[in-house]
Specification:
This protein has a single domain, classed as Aminopeptidase. It is about 35% helix and about 30% strand. It is built from six helices and six strands. Strands 1-2-3-4-6-5 form a six-stranded mixed beta sheet, with helices on both faces. The chain starts with a helix and ends in an 8-residue tail after the last helix. About 25% of the residues are buried. The C terminus is likely disordered.
């Protein structure tokens, strides 16, 4: 499921996906998938990552990973996500991210989450902006993406920003936008 969806969405995801500067860009064998799963499992067991699949209507829709978890006095992490292009625009990604934020803050005990997004990725930027992540600045040449070192905009949220939970806020905002105001543009 995962590999099939990734292959079908290769062109949709390529401009935003991390690449390794030492390996070819477009490896389609089973090896990279097996390696990624192994790494995510190991990091999850060590408390360094929370990898999730995203489902919609009972089928696989994408992936959301909270990674680079730092414990101690920081209690912070980075979040990354992707959605099947055929399902974009249905509010799946912001809903999944809101659920992940609530889990990280109120179950896991993290204090701060960051989402680092390429400036050109308007759809992903809309996701975090709709959820109230604040823009904190540019990270110059932060990640190797699609064959080159790329700038990213850092967005962040802390537990103090969502005292009643982010999912509740997101649902309220969607409901008021669809019943009382203009429709919410969804990614």
């Amino acid at each position: 499921m995962w590999r099939e969806t990734r292959l079908r969405n290769a062109d949709w995801l390529r401009p935003w996906e991390p690449s390794n500067p030492e390996t070819p860009l477009f490896r389609t064998g089973l090896g990279p998938y097996i390696s990624m799963v192994g790494t995510l499992r190991r990091e999850a067991r060590q408390g360094l990552a929370l990898p999730w699949v995203v489902t919609y209507g009972g089928r696989f829709a994408g992936q959301l990973t909270v990674g680079a978890i730092v414990w101690g006095s920081a209690r912070s992490a980075q979040v990354g996500y992707w959605i099947d292009g055929a399902l974009a625009g249905k509010g799946i990604t912001p809903t999944a991210l809101a659920m992940a934020v609530d889990h990280c803050f109120f179950t896991t005990g993290l204090h701060r989450l960051e989402a680092n997004i390429r400036p050109e990725n308007q759809a992903s930027r809309r996701v975090v902006e709709k959820l109230g992540f604040r823009e904190e600045g540019i990270r110059r040449r932060q990640l190797h993406i699609d064959g080159a070192w790329r700038d990213h905009i850092c967005y962040a949220l802390t537990v103090e920003d969502v005292p009643g939970g982010l999912l509740v806020q997101w649902r309220r905002a969607r409901e008021s936008a669809t019943h009382g105001g203009s429709p919410v543009e969804e990614v």
